[in-house]
Design a protein that fits this description.
The complex is a heterodimer of chains A (359) and B (281).
Chain A (H helix, E strand, L loop, with lengths): L4 E12 L2 E12 L3 E5 L6 H9 L6 E6 L2 E2 L12 E2 L11 H11 L4 H14 L15 H13 L5 E5 L7 H18 L2 E6 L2 H7 L2 E6 L2 E6 L1 H6 L4 H7 L2 E11 L2 E6 L2 E4 L9 E7 L4 E3 L8 E13 L2 E8 L4 E7 H4 L9 E6 L4 E5 L2
Parallel strand pairs in A: 3-8, 3-9, 6-7, 7-8
Antiparallel strand pairs in A: 1-2, 1-4, 4-5, 9-10, 11-12, 11-14, 12-13, 14-20, 15-19, 16-17, 16-19, 17-18
Chain B lengths: L6 H28 L3 E3 L2 E3 L5 H8 L1 H35 L2 H12 L6 H12 L4 H8 L11 H24 L4 H9 L4 H12 L1 H17 L2 H5 L8 H10 L4 H26 L6
Helix pairs in contact in B: 1-13, 2-13, 3-7, 3-10, 5-7, 7-10, 8-9, 10-13, 12-13
Amino acid sequence: MSRDILVSFEGVVKSFGNFIAVQKLDFEIKKGEFLAIMGSSGCGKTTTLRMLAGLEAPTKGVIRLSGKPINDLPTWSRDTPMVWQSLALFPFLNVIENVEFALKMRGVGKAERRRRAEQWLDRMQITEFADRNISQLSGGQRQRVALARSLVVEPEILLLDEPLSALDAALKVRMQSVLKNLQRETGITFVYVTHSQSEAFSMADRVVIMSRGKIEQIGTPQEIYRTPRTRFVADFLGSSNLFSGQVRSGTSGFELDTPMGPLRLAAPAASGESATLTVLDTQTHLSTTAPAGNVNFVPVKVIGEEFVGATATVYLETAQGQEIRVQKGHDELAGLPLAIGQPLYAWWNPEDGHLVRES
Amino acid sequence: MRRPISLYGLTFSLPLLIWQVLFFVFPLLFLVALSFWTVKNFVMSPDFDAVNWTTMYDRAVFWQAYGTTLALAAAASVLTSVLAFPASYAIAFKMSETTRRWAVFLMVIPFFTSYLVRVYSWQIFLSDNGIINVILGGIGLGPYQMLNTVGATMIGYLTLAFPLVVLLQLFSLVFIDRTLIEAAHNMRCGRLRTVFEVIIPSARTGLVIAALFCFILAFGDFVSPVYLGGGEPTTLSILITDTTKSGQQWPRAAVIALTMIGTLMVVAFAAVKFAYKGKSK
């Protein structure tokens, strides 16, 4: 076992009665990394976090923390502080008493725990609220109290269960950078559960994508974005155009046989296999005439357009009824006729296509 | 700006208002008036004389009874709260939804039977030749005097208040946010410590209100101190009956009753204030 592995899940299964929440998890969390576990609700991400925190016991398998199995360790005997979605701040204690709580439970003396709590209040810039009630704080301030409360014991790992989901968009972005900086400065391993792709991709060093209790892919945000491993991942990220078909070796290399005709593949693949070609919407281009040369193109019609700040998304439809999205800067779209119903060609370089297995 | 009183609101609140005026405010005012009446040759006559107040407040017996009643009621609310808490804790946190419903139902059943009947049945258990002494005698112990003791009075108070206290405690415990308990566990707070550090502070309002109800019930109770405690030591409720029986001293009884009402108001106000301390709206 490598030294820089902090946590490992080995064949971990969790079922509640007949419902299998998590099926056979095998992955590792590195020391000092910011790991995001992402998936839609009910995918098992929170159950995974709760098993790590000791709030649920695995049905099968082993979870190790620093090499030692922790399956039978109750949550109060592990050092795995968690930040709840609801934050779970104690309403009957004021801000500083909340932050001191974990130290008090560890038997730290009064003066010492006040000193350490004040340090964290200062660090989270909430010193002025020390004597306030929790109910008198704003959402962002509560967030900071919750973080201070968990970090005051200077743990090796911090678990976060969608802590930002209740905040408004602007505050969310600000708290993301607070979290990221905090993680970088302290070197504490963060395990962050979220359903939000923007949160996961903007903060995490590595992202775990889960679906129906299984891991679909683990990798850096770049890897996952550029080379999704399964159709599910590409679909879930929603930033690629997907073409399903069957691989065959054609006259000039490998091709994917799709309802829109054969599409060229840049890399060899197993003939006869069902597969999905994914092309990022930023790497899909538009032209008024059929492009020449070694490119893939599909005739399409414009069905809509949407402005998203600096870029625009053009929605198109093939003759077979499949939707295709193209995302471009405004100047790149300047010369194109984009009236609804306008026939165009969507095209991309075969090198920009990425083949994933079906399902 | 004052809101105009709507006819709709009035229609629904009027019966309650009339009821309160007729059966609470009016008798209370009458009681106040009564306490200033005088009694001569076993005949009451309307008057405005503070003699009843000075007579009662000058008597050591009155203050003894007052102290006894206060102490018994306080002891009953502490004892009942402490004994009821494990029960309500178990019902709130250790039972499934279905079992919990059954437990609540079982807690309501005692109210089906008159409190007086339940106290009489305790006599069968506690008397010198009662069930408990017969059983103890079978193994060569006793007999012990259990009836006509303060302990028996306490058992009576428990009979009166226990189910209600459990229900009141339960309603505050089931509304505790479970993630607070998990969060405490997660921060190295063990099960027992969590009860004192998180559960009791979270449920404080309900626990204090439950204890207050027990205090109110025990403070005014006449049945247990007489039929289980044997009238010793004298409580204020016993003193009221004694006073009315001896020479038609209804005005003096009114003084005792008013003192009791005043005490309960102070205690209730203090308890509610404590229960909601630190809670902003």
